[in-house]
Design a protein that fits this description.
Keywords: Acetylation, Acyltransferase, Endoplasmic reticulum, Fatty acid metabolism, Lipid metabolism, Membrane, Mitochondrion, Mitochondrion inner membrane, Peroxisome, Transferase, Transport
Main location: endoplasmic reticulum
CATH class of the largest domain: Alpha Beta
Protein name: Carnitine O-acetyltransferase
Strand order of the largest sheet: 11-7-6-8-9-10-1-16
Largest sheet: 8 strands, mixed
Pfam families: Carn_acyltransf
Number of strands: 18
Strand content: 5-15%
Bound molecules: coenzyme A
Enzyme class: transferase
């Protein structure tokens, strides 16, 4: 057993909060990473067959026969498909992961829409029981201490290795989320990570009333500040930022990436501005001390908080209290609402939520030791010189942002009737059950299925990110069509539901093992661009465009905390659905755009609840046959 295996065994069953100062394990991270397999390139013929199968439920027979022709041409021995496949296999032999760089660029860095709503997910935490500034600062101080506690595990390489389906996962994303930031660029952004430098950052950024501060969170001996110390520092920040900054500089980060890149270059021409921007980019993370959100009924409270996490509520509310390019931003508002927003390029949701689970547990710990109060230097206010041109850029960004804020339709619901336990008791994968409920809800609303994306982790492989589970399948369509068909018997419907969930789980298994079709097809397409061969017809086909137009973009992000992640739709006429299935209930966040007359987040959430209940009723009245 090597050091990595030994440590994994040791920590696998340990509790969430364990003492982190239990020494360092230098080299453990790399040893673990080296032990992981590399991402395979799936066989060409397998992907093409599965592609045709995935198209069946979402395009017409006529379109399908046209695409079959294109596939036949593409897969011919010695044809373009084989040539591109060989190129991919060569790339896989040379690189640590043939996909990850391409994916980072295509999905994130070259994506030009604003990160706000279109890319950055938010997380809604349970409401905290404080209602004033004292409570807000106390909670924020504890949260910072908890996040630094988690950072110690990263720094010491003692972070527990995670497992999926019994296999150890790539831990790289954990090393990318602190002290990092996205930088806008013309055509392509970049991500900087300051943890590897000679002098890793020791400060966090705190934003209050649209004013930015650099708060050092380590003592000169290298020990992190305690909650008491951080609280006093936060009070100093609060007291020096009683008025809102007239120019909410952070709003610039909400803009279209090309406009922001232009404004960024202009902004950092000034030396003071450049230093302030660098301080934010380098900081370990950001803490946003928000003004209270407008009081709303309990029914819509969570949805309102989700909107605050995703965009800050607009230029008149808290959007100026953010630097949206920052990888990790914790948000704590004066009324007890809190959560976070994160920039997606460096990481998927699960590592972010694991950090959050740790922090939330940490905030619940009683404070026993009160540290002696050694006077600490006042946190540094980050100054910006606002030229008329910058002012103009801010005004334009405000206008665009406010349109986006108006456009986002988001509904968070807690489905109380059952959680993971019910499908488990029926020997059904809870994730597959929820995905089939989404298929049923969509079909009932639109009388047709749609291309559906569910993220599948590729972290079993070194530097793995995600692939797509295509939840709309022949089996899911058979089930949703039958469900409301009066000509079908209930026992047939139950059988079709069970079969659809098994098909979904089977797709999940092949996806997490690197055998799904979406990233492979993307790889073949990018290989064609790299080889400068003309784009194969297969990728210019209407069916391909339909297959990539995900009206349902979904993701499971499980957490121990009773929270939910949320994100915007990926197409103008679609839904973004994220869920956290707990044992006895499920938290859902459903988003859509108001500008699309055909979508409605609350209505989708309502159909989803009905679908879950109808499916339970069906299974309970028709138990599976005894084996
Ligand atoms: N009978 C009984 N129990 C079952 C079952 C069955 N037929 N099938 C699964 N279960 C159990 C599992 O053992 C598991 O048990 P646990 O709660 O003790 O861990 C639980 O039900 C959940 O399994 P399932 O619902 O099938 O989902 P999963 O946990 O395997 O997750 C994915 C599926 C697709 C979400 C996961 O593989 C994945 O890829 N996650 C990452 C997604 C991601 O990156 N999202 C973020 C994007 S920003």
């Amino acid at each position: 057993m090597n050091i990595s295996q030994w440590f994994s065994q040791l920590v696998k069953s340990s509790s969430l909060l364990r003492p982190v100062a239990s020494g360092r394990l230098p080299g453990r991270y790399l040893a673990h990473q080296d032990s992981l397999p590399t991402l395979p390139v799936p066989p060409l013929q397998q992907t093409l067959d599965r592609y045709l199968l995935a198209l069946e439920p979402i395009i017409s027979e006529e379109e399908l026969s046209h695409t079959r022709e294109l596939v036949r041409e593409f897969r011919k021995p010695g044809g373009v498909g084989e040539r591109l496949q060989k190129g991919l296999e060569r790339r896989a032999r040379k690189q640590e992961n043939w996909l990850s760089d391409w994916w980072l660029k295509t999905a994130y860095l070259e994506y030009r829409l604003p990160v706000v709503v279109h890319s950055s997910p938010g997380v809604v935490l349970p409401k905290q029981d404080f209602l004033d500034r004292q409570g807000q600062l106390r909670f924020a101080a504890k949260l910072i201490e908890g996040a630094l506690d988690f950072k110690t595990m990263i720094d010491n390489e003692t972070l527990p290795v995670e497992y999926l389906g019994g296999k150890p996962l790539c831990m790289n994303q954990y090393y990318q989320i602190l002290s990092s930031c996205r930088i806008p660029g013309q055509k392509r952004d970049s991500v900087v990570n300051y943890t590897k430098g000679k002098k890793p950052p020791t400060h966090v950024t705190v934003v209050h009333n649209f004013q930015f501060f650099e708060l050092d969170v380590y003592n000169s001996d290298g020990s992190p500040l305690t909650t008491d110390q951080i609280f006093i520092q936060l009070e100093k920040i609060w007291n020096t930022s009683l008025q809102r900054n007239k120019e909410p500089i952070g709003i610039l980060t909400t803009n279209h990436r090309n406009s922001w890149a232009k404004a960024y270059n202009n902004l950092i021409k000034d030396k003071t501005n450049k230093e302030s921007v660098r301080s934010i980019e380098k900081s370990i993370f950001t803490v946003c001390l928000d003004a209270p959100i407008p009081r709303v009924s309990d029914d819509i409270y969570r949805s309102r908080v989700a909107a605050q996490m995703l965009h800050g509520g607009g230029s008149r509310w808290n959007s100026g209290n953010r630097w949206f390019d920052k990888t990790l931003q914790f948000i704590v508002a004066e009324d007890g609402s809190c959560g976070l927003v994160y920039e997606h390029a460096p990481s998927e949701g699960p590592p972010i939520v694991a950090l959050l689970d740790h922090v939330v547990e940490y905030t619940k710990k009683p404070e026993l030791v009160r540290s002696p109060m050694i006077p600490l230097p006042t946190p540094k206010k980050l100054r910006f010189n606002i030229t008329p041109e910058i002012k103009n850029d801010i005004e334009k960004a405000k206008q665009n942002l406010n349109i986006m804020v108006e456009d986002l339709d988001i509904k968070v619901i807690v489905f109380h009737q059952f959680g993971k336990n019910f499908p488990k008791s029926e020997k059904i994968s809870p994730d597959a059950f929820i995905q089939m409920a989404l298929q049923l809800a969509y079909y009932r609303m639109y009388k047709q299925p749609c291309a559906t994306y569910e993220s599948a982790s590729l972290r079993m492989f070194r530097l793995g990110r995600t692939d797509t589970i295509r939840s709309a399948s022949v089996d899911s369509l058979n089930f949703v069509k039958a469900m409301d068909d009066p000509g079908k018997q209930d026992h047939e419907k139950a059988e079709l539901l069970r079969r659809a969930t098994q098909a979904h789980r089977a797709y999940t298994d092949l996806a997490i093992k690197g055998n799904a079709i979406d990233r492979h097809l993307l790889g073949l397409k990018l290989q064609a661009i790299e080889d400068l061969v003309s784009m194969p017809e297969l990728f210019m086909d209407t069916a391909y465009a339909v297959a990539m137009h995900f009206n349902l973009s979904t993701s499971q992000v499980p957490a121990k905390t009773d929270c939910v992640m949320c994100f915007g739709p990926v197409v103008p006429d679609g839904y973004g659905v994220c869920y956290n299935p707990l044992d006895e209930h499920i938290n859902f966040a459903v988003s859509a755009f108001n500008s699309c007359a055909d979508t409605n987040a609350a209505q989708m959430a309502h159909y989803l609840e009905a679908a879950l209940l109808d499916m339970r009723r069906l299974l309970q009245s028709h138990p599976r046959a005894k084996l």
